[in-house]
């Protein structure tokens, strides 16, 4: 049956399933990015003595604990998807995330807001691991990174909506381009940001009930009949676009290693997967320092560098367009190169954007161009690296492996903000942006030691 699936060269599930998966990613990235602009307003209302200029000092705590929630969620919940199925856990993780978002909206004080971000992080961290695992397992081998990137387009849209809604709801009206003339500046604007997030989560949960289970997971668990039903439907859909090649039985293993009761054993007790865990964890940990400094703190960083809050918010909002452009372009070209090469390319783009922002001076048009390049650059490598991570672990422990390296790797984002927050206000714009971007250089070097996975059968790369 695996040979039957691996001969399919196109998306062979209902197109609606891709949209359903994407909607979940839209919400998770909406949640990641909605704090970018809205945090300044929330801080001034809930933190005693907080001003727009000092908000960066308070950003570290909710961000770090949110990312620690990622770690808890992904380490506890992701392995369950290796035990009870991808689809069932996708429902649970989205429920947790939605409840966390609603709690954020209702938080009466900063302490409760921080707790709500921990809960949200628990759901988001596990959801990212399981969604990427699911997409990798149902996509054809020739285009796993492509369809991971297609879903990532929805992530870009989530980031875009999160930042722009934050700008509209939490900042006052100001002439363009130093603000938005129709911005509402609602006193409770930041709360409405999280209400919207909770609504998106409810919609995503309802739609996810329609998703089928991963055939690879069903086979690993010995549920051959259930797997055959889904595989047959996938073949029928793929055959509508042309005849299918004969199954290549030589690429398929004749023996499935039994899954351990605790999936962590399949990772840490295998020398090959242990080496991969260490390498990929270091890559994600260092790379996320740059990603989260920009994703969660770009507006706050710019404000600390003496940009006005509305102006900083507009720069971040315009910059988010680069995320969308990058994701769309990458969906066409991501399979042209091995996964590891996209990280240094993204690093170069990020540095160019940082230089442009710093040299833009009083010209907001130039600063906008630089911000677009920054958002394109620090996101460019993420979707192919998602695909690489999924491909680097066996079906019996794939979500678990992803959870360890990506989920725990998110701690790098929190630690980065803790380290960078006190340094940034004392640096020039160029110095601050160069410092934030520099961690991608280390991640790029580490990526060059990862496995070759493009266009290879899962079981060949990770038996």
Automatic annotation (TrEMBL):
Predominant location: membrane
Transmembrane segments: 12-30, 59-77, 89-106, 118-135, 147-169, 189-211, 277-302, 314-334, 341-360, 366-388, 400-421, 427-447
Lineage, opening ranks: Bacteria, Bacillati, Actinomycetota, Actinomycetes, Micrococcales
Name recorded for this polypeptide: MFS transporter
Membrane disposition: Multi-pass membrane protein
Organism for this UniProt entry: Microbacterium kribbense
Domain Major facilitator superfamily (MFS) profile: 17-455
Domain of life from the UniProt record: Bacteria
Keyword Transmembrane helix recorded: yes
